[in-house]
Amino acid sequence: MTATLLTGIGLLATQDDELGELTDAALLIDGDRIGWLGPAGHAPAADRRLDLGGRCVLPGFVDSHAHLVFAGDRAAEFAARMTGQAYTAGGIRSTVAATRAAADAELRANLGRLAAELHAGGVTTFECKSGYGLDVDTEQRLVRLAAERTPEVTFLGAHVVPEHTDRADYLNLVCGQMLQACAPYCRWVDVFCEQGAFDVAESRAVLRAGIAAGLAPRVHANQLTAGGGVQLAVELDAASADHCTHLSPADIDALAGSDTVATLLPLVEFSTRSPYPDARTLLDAGATIALATDCNPGSGYSTSMPLAIALAVVQMRLSPAEAVRAATVGGAKALHRTDIGRLAVGLRADLVVLDAPSYLHLAYRPGVPLVHQTWIAGQRA
Q1: What pLDDT is recorded for position 89?
Q2: What DSSP assignment string belongs to 260-277?
Q3: Residues 262, 320 within the same domain
Q4: Which helix (H) or strand (E) covers residue 58, if one does?
Q5: Residues 160, 30: one domain?
């Protein structure tokens, strides 16, 4: 294995509580791990050196919520929203029809394209959900294809109830045969706990079935209404409650007193003209937050974590440092990962080089392609 020394780092924002932020720094990539980091004047020898010319280096972004295996698009639905039509969960069913009809090659190609976009935008780890099949065979296809690209695969058979299907029968299918077919490819189980999708009792049944099958829970919670999704996530010690757009004081207290991460998805609010989550109150209460793209064909078809960071700063009142931490450390916590999200010796060499002197430019220059390099497990992506 070749050791590569990155020199000329203007700002090394490690996101590590002990190391903090270093200026005039260097970092040694040894195989797929970080072998050393510190002041450039104390850098060790290496097989090769790469001068970054004063650029900023961050941990790779961790996208802990994405829906990337599907066919078709819903551009017409987006256009209708922009003329005043309200967003509902019902549009999912149109993607289901296209996805069921698509061959593996088409689904694999679309997934590869979106994964490449994520990597180009600085994402080094991403989660990927099913949920656009809603039958046993297609859901299994989706998780199998997702597992080719990431170890963070989530079974989301409980996305919505398919058309012309009995609710009780479908719930039994999700908790039984469909779960059994999909679990070998998955690490996580998820449910859309929301008006128009699944209520709290149904969601609890899905999550408990997934837990019994060896999967860890996460929840689509409180996106459209102030329902019971957040409380359910905390009750079951879910890794994350995702969306958290409509929160009561009790929801905020529950998240702050738990290990459940509040994963916020500002690209969805941007794309649906919805209110943004109250990130400031969550942080001030002591909750852990993550930022993710929620890339999906309906409510937010974007892979841009830099834009999510900018929106979190401008629209959700986070500081740039808080937003970057949510997109790195927060995302890693939402996936129960300790080997990513920070830069420290022994951790995986996942990092982003910005074409800017500081991460402040991610919000200061929104929409500008500032990701200069993405390194995943010690290799240029």
Answers
A1: 59
A2: -EEEE-HHHHHHHTPPPP
A3: yes
A4: strand 48-59
A5: no
Residue with tokens 């270093």: 22
Domain with 41, as residue range(s), is 3-59+343-380
The answer to whether residues 308 and 249 belong to one domain is yes
Q: What is the tally of structural domains in the chain? A: 2
**Residue 275's CATH number:** 3.20.20.140
Residues 6+ apart with CB under 8 A from 84: none
Residue 264 φ/ψ region, left for φ over 0, alpha for ψ in the -120 to 50 degree band, beta for the rest: beta
Q: Same structural domain for residues 173 and 285?
A: yes
In this structure, the answer to whether residues 308 and 370 fall within a common structural domain is no
Scored b (16 or more CB within 10 A) or e, 155-168 reads bbbbbbbbeeeeee
| pLDDT tens sequence across 229-248 | 999 999 999 999 999 999 99
**Overall average pLDDT of the 101-116 stretch:** 98
What tokens does 212 get? 């019994």
The DSSP symbol for 245 reads -
Separation CA 302–CA 90 (nearest Å): 20
Q: What is the CATH number of the domain that holds 12?
A: 2.30.40.10
Asked whether residue 316 falls in the same domain as residue 200, the answer is yes
d(C-alpha 372, C-alpha 111), whole Å = 23
Burial 294-321 (b: 16+ CB within 10 A, else e): bbbbbbbbbbbbbbbbbbbbeebebebe
- Count of Cβ atoms closer than 10 Å to residue 84 Cβ: 7
* CB-based contact 38:25 (threshold 8 Å): yes
CA distance 348 to 63: 16
Are residues 44 and 132 located together in one domain of the fold?
no
User: Alpha helices, DSSP H only, in 83-220?
Assistant: 92-101, 104-120, 136-146, 167-173, 179-182, 200-212
* CA–CA separation, 25 and 22 (whole Å): 6
24 and 156 inside one domain: no
The answer, yes or no, to whether residue 86 has pLDDT greater than 90, is no
